[in-house]
Amino acid sequence: MPNLKPLLWAALLFYAVFGHAAETELSLRAGIYAKSFPEFSVEDMEISIKVLAQEIGQNIGIKTDITVYENIDAMRSDFEQVKLNFVIASSLILATKFDTQQLAAGLRFMRSNGAADQMLVLVQKKSGQLDFKKFRGERLVLAKNDPVTELYIDYLARSEFRQGYKDSFKVLPSVKKSHQLILNLFFDQADITSVFNNAYQRAVALNPQLLTKLQIIAKLDGIPQAIGLFHKNTPLEFRDRVIAKAIKLTCTARGKQLLQLFKSDQAVRSSPADLLTVKKLFDAHQKLLLSQ
Length: 292
Hints:
CATH superfamily of the largest domain: Periplasmic binding protein-like II
Radius of gyration: 23 Å
Strand content: 15-25%
Distance between the termini: 77 Å
Number of domains: 2
CATH topology of the largest domain: D-Maltodextrin-Binding Protein, domain 2
Order of helices and strands: HEHEHEHEEEHHEHEHHEEHHEH
Shape: globular
Mean pLDDT: 85
Structural class: alpha/beta
């Protein structure tokens, strides 16, 4: 019978050398869906976010490659084939366009007060009304490429008026940035809008007078504006390492700069469970569509 010890030792040596090398050569291959971030142009992402994230990755010892997508089907396909191991998009996109069984823990950017996880319906305070139903036929303005706030407004319209928001309000041309929505209400260029609390709190910090003219008439908690999640086949140790490094972004100037681009001041651990509320909203909306 042949002596297998030399082969066994050779195998162990091969693993010790090349197995460790394979682990250290793991890279973060991230895809970001441009249309989930209406305040950024594709050029902004290519030049600012992509370059900055890759520089930070180099500084913390994690090879990072970011691809900006304008086609969600292409991004999903690359994720399913594990050409990507991390995807960043609106919570609605990840909850409805991806197989959530393939998703694992990741990150989301938010403000320290947690405001990023809350959607609001804002109106002019001069109306004196707090009832959503009283705003039927009024001027509504929404952001471009923000499917979550659009879904929320349409859900409320169908719940109260039994018809979609486009038939319930005088819909104004959409705007690119969230602060424009808020200013439109402030300057009496619109009557009602929906924004994330993160954007509202930023605007109030810059202009406290907004509190004298605007009021919240509806809100929904537990809706991340955007979220980044790993592919479940990405090694757990690597996922945890990336998450731990990202949470410490506030400790470096470049890290703070990246957070500021996402209008946030911290990165926190997230999980597929963070998609449950937006999925429930989507399902409830679908039921209304089928019944009307």
